[in-house]
Amino acid sequence: MSGIAQGLQQMVGSVLGAADFSLLDSLDSGAVVLDTQHTVRHWNEWMAQVSPISPQDLLGRSLWEALPKMTTHRLRTVVEDCFSHGIPGRLTASIHGSIFPLQQASGRPLRHDVVVRRLTQGSEPLCLIQVHDITARWEAQEALHRNELRTRAELAEIEAIYRTAPIGLGLFDRDMRFLRINEALADMNGAPIDQHLGRCAWDLVPALRPVAEPLFLKVFETGEPLLGRELRGTTPRAPSLERIWTEDFYPLKAADGTVVAVGVIAREVTEQRRLEDRERLLASELHHRVKNLFVMVQALAGQTARGAVTVSDFLQIFEGRLSTLAAAQEMLVLAGETGLVALRQAVHTALAPFLGDGDRLSVDIPDAGIPSKLAADLAVALHELATNATKYGALADPGGRIALSGRVDGSGVGPGLSLEWREIGGPPVRPPDRSGFGTRLLASIVDGHDGTMAMDWLPSGVVCRLEFPLGSASAQG
Questions:
Q1: Closest by CA position to 110, among listed 29, 55, 26
Q2: Against a cut of 0.85, is the pTM above it?
Q3: Per CATH, which fold does 3-133 belong to?
C-alpha cells in the first residue's frame, strides 16, 4: 500500500474513530462512505461540487436507490467484494466509462477513476469510495491519440507522394547504397525497386560512378546541397540508348548536424535535350538557308537586270524567278519529319507558270520522294530551263515543245535520280560563246548535290541531262 493511501486510511480511521467525517471534506478528491447496507454515510464537499445531486438527497439512503442508473454498474460488485472479502478494487474511466454522474464547472462530463477500500469504525465495517479527477490526463491522452492518428495520416500521405511522384526520388546511406527509392526513379534506371535496395546506383548504371560518387562524397563532407547536376548513362532496359538526367543532391542531417544520408531528386531530360539539340540544328539551318536565300535573290536580281531589255521585261522574269524560289522554300518547310518531297510536286512547282501551253510540255516522271533540299533546288533549276526555253528555245516558237522524263532508283547503286530535259521543234540553237546565268545556276545546283550535268546543243533543240545520287533510304516510291 502506498504512503499516500496509508496516510489517507490513517486519517479516515481517526475520523471514523471520532465518528466525524468532516475531515474528508478537506480532500482534493471525492470521498463517499458506505456502511454494510450500502447506505451513504458521508458525501464529501468535493463530490457535492461536481455532482448534480444534493448531499441531503443521498445521506441515509442506499447509494443504488439514490442513483438508480448505477444499479447494474460494476461499482456495486466491487463494493460487495470489499465488504465480503476485504479486497480493494479500482475502476478506470478509460475502461469502464464514467462511474458517478459527475460534471465539470463547464457542464462537460468529469472523467474519473474510483478506488474502493474497506475501513472499520469500532467494530462496524465501512467502505470508502475515493474518486479521482483524471479529466486532464484523459484529455491529454485523447489529444495524443488524435495527434498519433494525424501523424500517421500525414506520413501515409507523404509516403504515397514519395512513391507515386512523377520525378525520381532516392535516399542513400553513407556507403552510397539505396535506402529507399520511388517507382519513378526505379523506372528511369530500368530495374524494379527491390533490385535497388542495398546497392549503389552505379551497380545498375555503371557510367554514373565517375560523376555521381564525387557528388555524394561532397554532400556528406560539406553538408551542402548540389543542384542541377547533369548525369549520363545507359540502363539495363535500353543498353544501347544514352539517357540524360538532371539531379539534385541534398543532405539529411541528424539533430547534431551530422549528415546521415543523402537524398536525390532526378529528372530525366533525354527527350528534352534531344529537342533542344534539334532546335539548335534547325536554327542553324534556318540561318544558313536565309543567308543563302539572300545571296540567291541578289544573284537573280543582278542576272535578270543584265539580260532584260526593259523594266517590264525585268519585272516579269524576276517575279517568275522569285515565285519559284518562294515555292521551293515552302517545300523545305512542308517536308516534315521525313525530309522528303514528291518529285512530281517539285516539277509542278517549277513548271506551273508554263503548263498553260497544253501538250507543248509533257512530263513523264515517277511519283517518288526525294530529299527536300534537292527538290527545292531542282524546282529552281527546272524553272530556269523553262524560262530560257520561253525566251530562246522550244517555247519561243509556236511549234516547239518540251519533253521532261526521269526515273528514281533508291537502291543506292548508280545515280538515284536521272532527269532529261529535251526541247523539240524550236528555233535552231548553237552552243553559247559564254556561260549565261541559267547555265551557271544549273552547274551550281548540280555541284551542291554531287550530281552531274550534260548539255547538248542539238539542231533540234537543247537536251539537258541531270543525275543526282540518292541514298537507299532517301527515295520512296
A1: 29
A2: no
A3: Beta-Lactamase (3.30.450)
